[in-house]
Every structure is written in C-alpha cells, then in structure tokens.
Sequence to fold (680 residues):
Amino acid sequence: MNCIRNYTYNGLIFFFLPVICLAIQDSISYHFDPISVQGKNQKSQSKSPVHIIQPSSLKKKSNSLTLNSAIESVPGITVFSDENFAQDTRISIRGVGLRSSFGIRGVKVFLDGVPESTPDGQAQLDAIDLMFINTINIFKSPSSSVFGNASGAALNFISNPLSDKSQNKLNICLGSYNSKKLNIELNGFNKIFKWRLNGLHKFSKGFRQHSSTESNILNLSTEFILRGSQKFKISLNNLFSPFSYDPGGLTLNEVNEDRRRARTANIDYRSGESVFQSKFSLIYNSTIFEKYDLRSHLFYKGRQFQNRLPFESGGQSELARKYGGFSSIVEKSSTILSNNKTSIGFEYLDQVDLRSRYDNMQGEKGQLVYKKNESYKSLGLFLYNILKFKKGHIFNLAIRYDLNLISFEDYVLIGDRDAREYHNFSPSTGLSLEIFRDFRLFSNFSQNFETPTLYELGNDPQNISGKGINNNLEPQNSFSGELGFEGEFSDLKKVRGTFFQTRTKGEIIPFELSGIPGRTFYRNSGKTLKNGYELELIGTLINKINYSLSYTNSNFRFTDYKIDDENLMGNLLPLIPKDNFHLELERIDFFGIDVSINILLKSKIYADDLNEQMIPGYRKVDFMLLKKIETLKVNSVIKLNIDNVLGNDFYDNIRSNAWGGRYFEPAHGRYFSMGLELMF
Fold:
C-alpha cells in the first residue's frame, strides 16, 4: 500500500512538469500523442506507417481464447503458443520478441497508451482479451527513441470506448476441447462521467494432455469529463488464473506416436502456473493555456505468480512483482519555417521482483535454494519533433536518453549484492514524401538498445545454484532502417510495401543445459543481420468480395556467432519463416450473413541455432460466419468459427534450442467454436 501511495504522490507532482519546459514559447494549439494519435491519423502524423487492426476484424475473432488469431495475418509478425496458456502468447515483430519460451521480449506492449511491459522488457498478455479491445495499433519500426528499452517495435491495444448509452452486453462462446468463454458487460453514464464493468471467465481442457487452463478477468473503467478539454480516466484490471498447465515440448518420435500426449516429466512434476494480478491506471488529458496539449498517466501493477517446472533443482518459483510508473508528454505547434510540432516528455518506471526458487519434489515444494530482491529502475527523457511542409512532406526527428539501474540483493547469502547501470541515447529520424495525392514514400532510421531482463540476468549457466548473476550477459544494440511506399487507388483501397534491415550486435539467444532440461539460460551471440520486405494489398473484387493480402519475406542470419568451436556465421535465426503469406476473402451481407475465409501459408523454420532441426512449413484455412439480428429491445450477433478447416498437422509452439530435441508442441486439428452476443 505504501508503494501505491508513493507512486501516486510522486506521479501527481510530476504530471505537469513538462509544461514548464515549453511555457515560454508561443504556439497554436495542436494535439499530438506518439502512441494514440499515430494510430488514428497515420497519414499526417506518424513517423512511419502504423498497421491498424480495425474493430470489424477483431469482432470476427472474439471467440478466440487468445490474441494470436487477431494479429497473425499482419505482415512482419510471427506468433506462437496459441494453446499453451502457461507459456502465454509469443510474438515476434520483424524477428524480435521470441527469445523467451514464455511471454514477449523486446517488443513494447501498451494498453490505451499505458505500459503493460515491464521496464526490463518482459510482457504478458494474459490479462487482455479480444472482448475488451476496439483496435490494435502496431508500430513495426524499432522505436527506442520513443518507447525506450526495446529492440523491436510496439503494440498498443485500444480498449472499447466508454458508451454514451446504458447498453449492456452478454457474450457466450463454446468451442472444441470443452472451451468456454463468458463475458458480462455493464455500462452507465451521466453528465460528468461514464463507466463500464466487465467480468470475463475462460476455461479450456486443451487439445493436449495436461494443458487445461482457467482464468477470470474483472475490469472497471470510468471517464470523467471536466471543464474545457480536460479528461480524466481511471481503470482497474484484475486477473485471477488458478491454473494453466504446461504439457511441455516433445521429441519428433513422441509427436509421431501421439500428438496429444504431454511430456512425462511435465506430468510428474505437475508443470504449470497460477497468477493473480491487479493493475490501476490513471490517464489525464488536457489543453493548457490554449497552447499546450498534455497527456499524462500514472499506473501501478501487482503480480503474484507461482509455477512448477519439469525438473527438481530450483524447479518451483514464486514471484511477487510490484511495478509502476508515471509519464507526461506535452506537445505544442508553431508555424516557424513550417507546421512544426514538438513533443517533450519523461517516463519513470520502477520494477521490484521478489523471486524465490524451491526444489520441485514431484510437484511438492522442497528446499529454498534462491531468494533475491531484483530491482529495475528506469528514467527516460525524450524529445520528438515533426516538420510538416506545405506540399505534404513530413520530416521527423527524435532522441531519447534512458538511465537503467539494476540491482540484485540475495536473501539466502546475506550481504551478497550485485548491481548494473546502463546509459543509452537512442536517436531516430524519418522522412515522408507525398509524391501525389494518396501516395507516399517514406524512410525511417533508428538506433536501439535492449537490456537483459531480470530473469535472464538471474539465470547464470556457470552457477546454476543462483549465486551471483550472469556477468557475461550484456545488452544488445541495433541499427534499423526501412524504406517503403503507401497509397490508395480506387478499388485498391490500400497498397503498402516496405523494405527493412536491422543490424544487431550481441543478440541475446536462449539455450538449455543437459543437466536441467526445461530451464532456459541466455547468452549473447556475435552479430545478426535481418533483411526483409513486406507487401500488403487491400481492395474489393467482383460481387462485393473484399480481400486482404499480405506477404513477408524474412532473411535473418547470424553474421558473427560461435558456440565452442562451431562457427554459425550464415545460419538462419530460429523460429522465423522465410516466407509468410496471408489471404482473407470476405463477403458482407451475403443473404444477411457475413462470410470470411482466411488462408495462412508459412514456409519452413529452424528450431535451433545450428540449423540442424528443420520444422516443415504448413498451411491453415479458417472459416467464419456472422449473423446480426436486430429487434426493438435486444440486438444479437451469432458467430460460427471453424479453425484449421482442412485439419492439417502443424505446431502451435516451438521451443528453440531445447535440450534433447524437445522442440515440438503440436497444434490442434479442426477446431469449432460458436459465439452469441446479446446487447440490451
């Protein structure tokens, strides 16, 4: 409670600090928010094109228990772990984000512009559901100059807007493998504020043995409309997941014997997790002195986490995480030289993890072997400027300074303390040229950094007992560039193409040791080079058939990497397919029913740095029907989804560099789900 009070007091003191920095300048009023506004008006404001997943697309896929189906079609994105709820959704944007066997690394995640990612670079999406989300903004260009500690880009989930109507909702979804999803939403409003209460329950027995899950989410959002342009929003989010079991990775022989089986050790050690999490956030937007647009947020998150891993030594973990921070951005405009928009701001984040490890005695808690207070503090100062010229050309420049303080205090070895300190400057620049109406060329270049996470530093492969930290693990640094075009032509509603390249030094790579398979350690490779291009077409065919087509080509390789005496120069990075193709065909109001077909094609990938284990490519076809029924009192929507219509075999998750060839987590076959939404 004291921690919450400290964040609140300090945050309110600094809410308005950036205004002082710009108060002596004259300007006209103009609102700019590097996170939200880019997604709303990407043509005129964004430093690079932003991919926006629209409400209509999310609504079609809201039967899903995870977010994977909503983003797997976006060019440049690779997703894993749609069915292993203990590992959570894994996302890669242009080759960044998959180094951990669970969650997301190197990609910043936001909910309504408020961080979901921790300052050390971790993110979990278990408290976010498609039922709550209106749009998803995806920033694919690496943006340390805006978002701080991350080699990759960013995801901003925009929640459903609060309603001006007292309309309530009930959603019921049933699917294969005893999957269930129930959501209740209550809305209310008056002259000065609006509110919404959501309650969501999810359960699935799972396709594989030992893969069942249950989670419960409760959300409360209120928005106050104060004098003038002031808006004040408070949100509370609670997650309780009593169990999510981990079926583990299999060898190829085990997969061929039985795709639905779990790894024996995962059953014996009762591998899985439980989570309780609460988050409070406060967002304040205002125009000050009719000149400055201010956006500030304050948040605090507490997470209680327990898991069991499939080995004895240190195989049970308990994590008590306290994480919070505050940020302010102020923006102003002037007409000096051109339409000039300047944003200046700061961000302070504070993460404290009390992590304990116990021996896992066949599922029972054994002796305490590790207990440390792990701390990560981050202070970021940034400046962002956009010059918009009369002919529609845009030039932007950004720079950010980050101070990251890391410390470990050992409670088992009294007096043992380790600390690190990192200083980083991250510049970026971009240019957008309007060649003719509705057609632009753009380029962006940036320098980015990413520190190891607390978990990665605390796992030392040379001292598995947990004494000290991994002093051989260093931050990775990268330089990124992209060149592209974007336009609209009559029936071709959008065409976009992008060529990108990222050079990384010290890429952080996961691996396992033979003595404790299932526990992941990390090391720096030498250098990597990621080259690729993306193409996206959206338009209309005959008979009102809409189509969306995307293709990504990825050539991601090690350019300087040795393991012992093995030279891996030229090897492909694991898990990323060279070719990724998606096609969606949609017919709206076909005899009163919306029909959609999604086709996803992926080429082969490698499961290991040595490129010895090849995973074959696959194709997946999904089918959806949606029917709207409107009456005077109740409006309803009925949805039928058939995933993997052809019943093809492929893998839901691949564990890179797993010991003993246990790379494989098979995906389900044909999957049915039906959903009913009532609005009253």
